[in-house]
Amino acid sequence: MSGRAQLMWDEAVTRYDFGAGHPMDPVRLALTRGLVSAYGLDRDLEVVAAKPAGESTLRLVHREDYVDAVKAASADPAAATGSYGLGTVDDPAFAGMHEVSALIAGQSVGAAEAVWRGEAKHAVNFAGGLHHAMPGGAAGFCIYNDAALAIARLLELGAERVAYVDVDVHHGDGVQAAFWEDPRVLTISLHEHPRTLFPQTGWPEETGAAEGSAVNVALPAGTGDAGWLRAFHAVVPELLAEFRPQVLVTQHGADTHFEDPLAHLAVSLDAQRAVQLACHELAHEHADGRWVALGGGGYAVVDVVPRSWTHLVAIAAGREIAPGTEIPEEWRQEVFARTRESAPRRMTDGRKPSWADWEAGYDPADRLDQAILATRRSVFPLRGLLP
Predict the structure, then answer these.
(1) Minimal CA–CA distance to 288: which of 240, 330, 320, 254?
(2) Rounded-to-integer distance, Cα 273 and Cα 252, Å
(3) How many CA atoms within 13 Å lie on the side-chain side of 309?
(4) How many CB atoms lie within 10 A of CB 250?
(5) Helix (H) or strand (E) holding 162
(6) Alpha-carbon distance 302 to 313, whole Å?
């Protein structure tokens, strides 16, 4: 296996653009790429532009009629009327939509191939993580489900156990749906409770048709660093140790952040970085270091997303950026030129996140502990573990 990580990047992914005013502003991708370069991380990575996912690859997850519908909407956006979820407020049709969506999917599939074949130690596609797309429809700003396609490709290549950990603020519903009946895939999603956030799924009782293959931690609105990290460490490591994945695929939506305009958790950049570090360690502990890391949601496109995903890239590259590091001035100037907004000055929110370990005990009256316990009681016995 190569000692270098791969960064999957093609400038054309910034054409994934639903138009002015849409929360999924592609500037977040361009600014992340710029910050990665500003820190000189390209020297520690192999930057690779994979080919777009072809039709046979897309059909590993998506129905043929849906792919045809995306192509039609891509060629004639004005004709999209909401069928297949295309042409809606969340997923407006735009020219070239099929091509750029297939390109993003291709980067995640290429990342999976490189890690499985030992061509890269880790691989990152921060343009990916579009986890809401369903086999037969678009949803939640997502056209093709690159995360599910990467997992499906791993299975096609011979993987027998793939774990998927999703820490986006929204439930990873599309990935869960794609592998609901497949015991070879363990999906774990930590997200804001479905009572208060789209897509209103991800209840702890959703455990998969292959009993115990789907895991959902539904966090109360307002959960901050200590609770978020407590929930992650109370659920994820023990399940991965039992499952013994050959590859770990993780989705790192940055929309858990307290500044994100579309959700209600209160997580800091520093806690996001702590979970990224934990995922890296878990990949080495349980999957021989095979780690595919994806982006996801995140709508504080200047203050949060570029910093969070640059930390992710740096961790994968083996060159962690200390939280207090000053941000290069050339990048701050790029931010102003592109957005007319002032950029943050350091790679931290100034937090030093910590959490109380679950093994030390829990409070049955605490809403967060109730959420953790609901997940453990629903899933752990199905996997032969004590709740």
Answers:
(1) 240
(2) 10
(3) 39
(4) 27
(5) strand 162-166
(6) 17
* pLDDT tens digit sequence for 134-167: 999 999 999 999 999 999 999 999 999 999 999 9
What phi, psi does 236 have (nearest 5°)? Answer: -70, -50
What is the pLDDT at residue 3? Answer: 63
pLDDT at residue number 210? 87
Q: Which amino acid is at 164?
A: Y
- Token pair listed for 84: 């297949």
- The alpha carbon dihedral of 369, 375, 381, 384 has a sign of negative
Burial environment of residue 342 by CB neighbours within 10 A (0 to 12, 13 to 18, 19 or more): exposed
Any idea which residues carry the catalytic annotation? 132
Neighbours of 292 (CB within 10 A): 35
With a CB cutoff of 8 Å and minimum separation 6, the contacts of 383 are 212, 239, 242, 243
pTM summary value: 0.98
Contact 261, 215 (CB under 8 A): no
Residues 371 and 230: beta-carbon distance below 8 Å: no
Residues in the chain: 387
User: Is the separation of the CB atoms in 292 and 247 below 8 Å?
Assistant: yes
